[in-house]
User: Fold these one by one.
Assistant:
Number 1:
Amino acid sequence: MNKIETEINLDELAGFFADMSSNTLRFSNANFSFDISQNKEIRINNPEIVSDHLRTNYFKNLPSEFEIDLEANFNSRIADSGYFSQKQLEFIETMGILMGEVRSSIELQEAIDELRIKLANSKGMTDEEKYEMIALVEYTNSLHQNLINGGLGQIANNILNTENGRILDAPDLDFTNHCPDDVNQPCDTGEGGSSGCSVNWRDVWAGAVVGLTVGATQGAYVGATAGTVTFPVIGTVTGGVSGGVVGGAIGFVSGAATSVAAGLITSCGR
């Protein structure tokens, strides 16, 4: 990774990541086109809309090569990616434990606040490594807020069966993130939902992080070979730092959307 020489305001950087993630999730969920196979495997037909959105609204000089191939690498393990440092892996493991224990929106917000404090006080990470973990925390918060504020309905409305058209009815969906004690059971969709559709927060978060890992790994390679990217807040960055952060953003959004869609088509049983 290339070192960033300028002094960065971490609160300002966190705000940028949060804004970017929230806007990109809203845009992508509303504009993704999904397709399912007879085996209920799901894919995004137009994943390039994420990189196009980031290129247009957030990052200058973003190379056209930033089209992250999730399908070929979605089973990649975080620890085996070779991208994250040991300190980053330890932080991601802590996040994973907390995400698996979440039972409500309140508990998730408490977990996010705890992670922000841990990251602010963490030692042993370089500045660049800490920036990436700040992004992951803020992406996680944005994902949760998106799901409880209509994100599920947006995704459901764009899941298509090529033979029969739309398969899910978005108005029936309500995600409140109330979960049973058994972490292997899906979260409740709220009272009055007639569709019975639900998603498991832990599964969605895990899918998003796998997507981030794939995107960051591929993006670091692209960034190291494609020149510079200009970041708001950070400025112009060359190499793996820029590529990893941008690729991670693309992968996180795409991985989250794919996991949500997979959970919906499985639980809805249509």
Note: The beta strands are 34-36, 42-44, 159-161, 165-166, 228-231, 235-238.
Number 2:
Amino acid sequence: MNDRLEDVAALFDGGRLTLARQLTGLRKNALAVQIQKTPTAVAAYENGSKRPAASTVAALALALDVNPAFFITSPSNLPATTATPHFRSLRSTSQISRDQAHAYGCMAVYIATAIERHVQFPERNLPQHPVAGDSSAGTGPEEAARLLRKEWELPSGPVGHLIRLVENHGCLVVFSPLDNATVDAYSFDTAQRPVILLNPLKDDYYRQRFDVAHEIGHLVMHLDAEPGSRVVEDQAHRFAAELLMPADEIANELPHKADWRTLSQLKQRWNVSLQALLYRARTLEIMKDVTYRNAMTTVSTRGWRRREPGPMPMLEQPSLLPRAVELLHSENQADELTLANECQAPLRLFRTITSRTPLTEAT
């Protein structure tokens, strides 16, 4: 064991320490207390200006609940070049939570890269249609959505299984861990694959689909835009609305008033929420602003913001990573532990990232 720790110390990668610390949700000073070092020393380990001793490597691994080998860079965990993640509200999301969420997404990319050595994934095919994030004028978001529907050769009418659609075009979709569930759905791009992370507590088929469409919008339009602004988020909403409810197809179906029976029928047909339909009717100027506001007041009064009436289909589930792990296991090529070790991920984290559904507890 001592020899291995000495080897890790010699090959120590400060970036992997940063990743492990962020995954745990610790600040540098909190980690420093746990390993009985100074915050300056931790910063030096992370920026590569100083290497930790073997005993410090052991203390870091214990404090961060990882195998010491986690701190070594290998071909399966090479740093992923990432754009800044798009979080819904920067004001309500702490920096530590954002760092933890981003680190988790990076781990998803590392795991996918390791699995892809054994299983061929779809090639990434996510066209870029940049829209300036400093202006709400124009129809850029709607045009970007129309172009994507054409490039992905989507038929007219409602979009089918949305998560499967984006996975078939080379995107990763995973659920966030429960301990980071305060962060809503978010996304970012990497040199390997785009990543969409979904909130594990949002148990709503319709809202989840709009979340996915919203994040596709960020990935298509906003790679160079400053995340979190009201304009950028509004553009992603407009993109999602056009992707899921094309104006030239749904405009004649939307009511001018809050006809709940008609809206309920449209909800089932287009696989979107009542609130999304009301939003679409207002933005297409089919429904007047005062009518929309009154309808949303009714939605709030009746408690529909949390749960709308009517049948609730099962959540769409990611399948790209889960199916790959199942395939390798069924063919006796590799089990979960082998794959987790290959990408140097803690087993519980590996299972969370490769799960079809949000895990209710660490396993």
Note: The chain has two domains: 1-73, 75-245+315-363.
